[in-house]
Structure to design on (193 residues):
């Protein structure tokens, strides 16, 4: 394990050659103490000691015959591949909006008519415009966003005629500048000595 360095690995290799089990146990505890000193800020965490003993077992290639204070992990668990994450099959119509926006529009179409649905439509359309801006920073046509919205909703959502998207400048917030303190030039120039 590279984070402990060559010297710790040499110590671990050495205790594998110690014949006496009690001496090996004492040497292993000394190595754990040294490993803990490398990361003093983590020493008070409860699982940290357990992690150190696991690392010692891994560095010894699981060949160290001592009484571990914790159950050490099995080699099979360390080499086992994680389960594959199931992704929803199907094509995303507009990749710059993403699948979540498509799912949200579908869910919004199931809402009853009223102010909640209108607010949700407004928020979704503004979010779509913001997503579009990440791909096309030059110009974003509100009509294009609304046409995409209508297509993704498959005509299930009636958007009001007077519907307006937020201005681009309102959607993209520039980071605020921190006020400068000190460090700048003095008014009146430099002081002569």
């Amino acid at each position: 394990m590279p984070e402990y360095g060559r010297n710790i690995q040499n110590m671990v290799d050495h205790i594998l050659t110690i014949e006496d089990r009690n001496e090996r146990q004492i040497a292993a505890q000394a190595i754990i103490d040294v490993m803990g000193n490398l990361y003093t800020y983590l020493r008070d965490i409860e699982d940290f000691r357990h992690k150190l003993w696991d690392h010692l077992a891994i560095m010894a290639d699981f060949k160290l015959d001592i009484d571990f204070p914790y159950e050490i992990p099995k080699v099979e668990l360390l080499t086992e591949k994680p389960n594959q994450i199931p992704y929803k099959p199907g094509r995303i119509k507009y990749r710059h909006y993403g699948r979540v926006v498509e799912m949200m529009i579908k869910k919004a179409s199931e809402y009853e008519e009223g102010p909640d649905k209108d607010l949700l439509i407004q928020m979704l359309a503004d979010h779509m415009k913001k997503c579009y801006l990440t791909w096309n920073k030059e110009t974003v046509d509100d009509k294009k966003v609304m046409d995409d919205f209508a297509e993704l909703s498959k005509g299930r959502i009636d958007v009001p005629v007077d519907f307006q998207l937020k201005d681009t400048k309102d959607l993209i917030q520039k980071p605020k500048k921190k006020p400068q303190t000190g460090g700048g030039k003095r008014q009146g120039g430099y002081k002569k000595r």
Summary: The CA atoms of residues 22 and 66 lie 8 Å apart. Helices lie at 5-15, 21-38, 46-59, 75-79, 99-109, 115-135, 142-153, 168-171. The chain has two domains: 5-79, 99-171. The longest helix spans residues 115-135.
